[in-house]
Design brief:
Layout lengths: L1 H31 L8 H9 L9 H23 L3 H10 L31 H27 L10 H17 L2 H14 L1 H6 L1 H27 L4 H15 L2 H6 L10 H27 L4 H13 L6 H14 L1
Helix pairs in contact: 1-12, 2-14, 3-5, 3-6, 5-6, 5-7, 5-14, 7-13, 12-13
């Protein structure tokens, strides 16, 4: 009983600090932009209910659902990319996005170089597609470790890289390549290396195979990825310029607490700084730190989420935030 009370107190103080940092931005959102209030809900939910002990999940069912979802996303991505009309019409009817600017036409084949053709699948936007795919993979991976833990009693997050895991990972990697998302492809490689580093470094065969795959894809994407950072027209460079201009124009108080800005940042860090200031950004980082202290094995996941935030939304986007909640509930 004493140990339980001590654990609750240990978690209560950082939770209170995190929520306190979010309050100024939340109040400003209520007053000036009520439509943004809902964007604070996922992080507040994650913080208050952490570490989700009371949530019961069927890890086996989740794992199977993830495999089916990945297969569904991948197959529809391929069929839409080659212009298979029944699936194209299916997307138009059930995934309609009026006026979407992310329609890349159709490909004669799928052997184009990286980003010469981008397959956005059901979501039109390749980056949105890639975000959904990689989060479903995370859910699959951690639900799989839950199943292994319950069956064998072994340590949590110990992954058996069997044929099923290899197949699912290969499909996701190829699908991300077709989507042409630089951020998510880099994140996926970083995540895989960190998550399976012991297995990769222990086996010479696996290390050699992974090395050849990495070199091949590195040669394909290097110039495009670097261009995103150094080119004046590079997406990452543009996002940093937008954020830098915003910081330069704002007064110190609003930089700390957030503002009702309508600036389109198109990145996790920019959006949180704009809506909840550096206090809000600090709250996100502190939450990741809280999770890391309790579950150090989740470092690859936490680093991946932080890398995603450079070029895309994570907890700020409602679709991705919902998936992040599921990832944390399954993994912790």
């Amino acid at each position: 009983g004493i140990k339980l009370i001590s654990n609750i107190r240990t978690e209560l103080y950082p939770k209170a600090a995190i929520i306190s940092l979010l309050v100024p931005g939340l109040i400003l959102a209520v007053i000036y932009s009520s439509q943004d209030v809902i964007r604070f809900m996922p992080i507040i939910f994650l913080v208050l209910l952490y570490p989700y002990r009371f949530i019961r999940i069927d890890a086996n069912l989740i794992q199977r659902a993830c495999i089916l979802t990945i297969a569904y996303l991948f197959l529809t991505q391929i069929l839409i990319a080659i212009g298979y009309d029944p699936v194209v019409q299916f997307r138009s009817q059930w995934y309609e996005i009026p006026g979407s600017s992310h329609i890349y036409g159709y490909a004669d084949n799928l052997t184009y170089g990286f980003r010469e053709f981008r397959a956005g699948g059901l979501y039109y936007n390749p980056n949105v597609y890639a975000s959904v795919l990689i989060f479903v993979y995370f859910i699959f991976l951690y639900s799989k470790s839950q199943v292994m833990t319950s069956v064998s009693g072994s340590a949590r997050h110990t992954h058996n890289f069997n044929a099923k895991m290899a197949l699912v990972t290969s499909v996701v990697l190829f699908s991300l390549y077709l989507a042409g998302s630089r951020t998510y492809l880099v994140v996926f490689f970083v995540f895989l290396f960190l998550e399976f580093r012991h297995l990769i470094l222990k086996s010479k065969i696996i290390f050699t195979i992974i090395g050849f795959i990495f070199i091949f894809i590195f040669i394909e994407v290097y110039e495009v990825v670097i261009g995103a950072f150094v080119s004046n027209q590079g997406s990452v460079n543009i996002k940093f310029s937008i954020l830098n201009d915003y910081i330069y124009r704002q007064n110190y108080v609003l930089l700390l607490t957030g503002s009702s800005t309508t600036t389109f940042f198109d990145s996790e860090y920019g959006n949180w700084i704009g809506r909840s200031g550096f206090f809000g950004l600090m709250a996100i980082i502190l939450f990741y730190g809280l999770v890391f202290i309790r579950s150090r094995s989740l470092f690859p996941l936490l680093l991946s989420l932080m890398l995603m935030g450079i070029g895309n939304t994570v907890l700020y986007g409602m679709l991705t935030a919902t998936l992040v909640i599921v990832v944390f509930v399954v993994s912790i």
